[in-house]
What we know:
The chain contains 19 helices and seven strands. The chain has helices spanning 13-16, 21-27, 44-54, 69-83, 101-112, 126-129, 132-135, 148-161, 168-178, 182-194, 206-213, 225-239, 243-255, 260-275, 281-296, 300-314, 320-334, 350-354, 394-418, and strands spanning 34-37, 58-63, 89-94, 117-122, 139-142, 165-166, 203-204. The chain is elongated. InterPro entries: AAA+_ATPase, AAA_assoc_2, AAA_ATPase_RarA/MGS1/WRNIP1, ATPase_AAA_core, DNA_pol3_clamp-load_cplx_C, MgsA_C, P-loop_NTPase.
Amino acid sequence: MRPQTLDHYLGQDHLLAPDKPLRRALDSGQLHSMIFWGPPGVGKTTLAQLIAQLCDAHFISISAVLAGVKDIRAAVEDAKQQQFFQRRTILFIDEVHRFNKSQQDAFLPYVEDGTVIFVGATTENPSFEINNALLSRARVYQLNPLSDAAIVDIVRNAASHEGLQIAQAEVERIARHADGDGRRALNLLEIAGDMLSGSAERELHGDVIDQVLSGQPRRFDKGGDLFYEQISALHKAVRGSSVDGALYWFARMLDGGCEPLYVARRLVRMASEDIGNADPRALRLCLDAWEVQERLGSPEGELAMAQAVCYLAAAPKSNAVYAAYNAVRRQITASPSYDVPMHLRNAPTGMMKDQGFGEGYRYAHDEPGAYAAGENYLPEALKDEVYYQPVDRGLEKKIAEKLRYLQELDDSAAYKRYR
């Protein structure tokens, strides 16, 4: 079912429309090394084959899952033979991110000297998986999931080729369940066709499609780009106070097979990073949901986490604690290792007391209002630093009022001291 020309290739108009750089390069025969990055079933291998056909180039295909350095060397020798006939060679490496550094380095010199034109396909972000030296010599093209309209055309063509009759509504159902993956759509159609095996009837009814589509998972790759994109969307929806958005991405991750306890851990992070002291109950609620998931599992645990997700999204937001903590860490990294001021040190022995440990320390509970106004608890060089700046929302509004009051007491004490 692979298309034989670029005009029959469906999807990726952002790369292959007549006015796009890749299409212009191909039409003019100007080949260059490239990496196709995109999810499964969007036409990476097919596009590489079409490029070789369009440019009349010798095509060598290697799977990084199965191949090693020996296979790379054999492919290079084959390419050198083609040079005698003034013919270019495309070395296509599927799942190129599976190659380790030494394997990628093995064919790098032959990409540089033009022995082969490297075309790689990967489902993983090339920035993380491909050596910089190779990445700098290849142009990265991102392929998108196929649209439902493109998959409808793919299914229609395949059904016609196999002599299968199928209503438009059922074709559209398959397209939706394919989730942007053309290969998955063809597999679903093939399974449906196999269910008619031995029958004279060639029409795929709704009940057959129901059986085929039952239990089909959504696109999700544990530990891959989709995984991090979706947890990012969940976190940002919580931060943006979108209850519906947060609940949607939470459910999508679970539907795709994400480990619930991973999500529970991230919810705890969100409670501290984006809500903090604006509503301290959020942290406790997330820990409770985590415990319910550990003790009861599904579906009770997932419902408890959904409750936490909704609470986090609706709660007042503050990143003041997060910002203060990061500011302190930056200060510590950039500063010397200041000693603890003498008045803050304990004096458990007489010798230490004689040396001035603890001298001048004011016990807060003996002070008016249990506050030692004007006391300094930072290293002397940092005594004027202010890290925590609560926002004017939720409980932090009250905290901010309290801190302003304490600052007034400090200012008054300083005024009396230096008057």
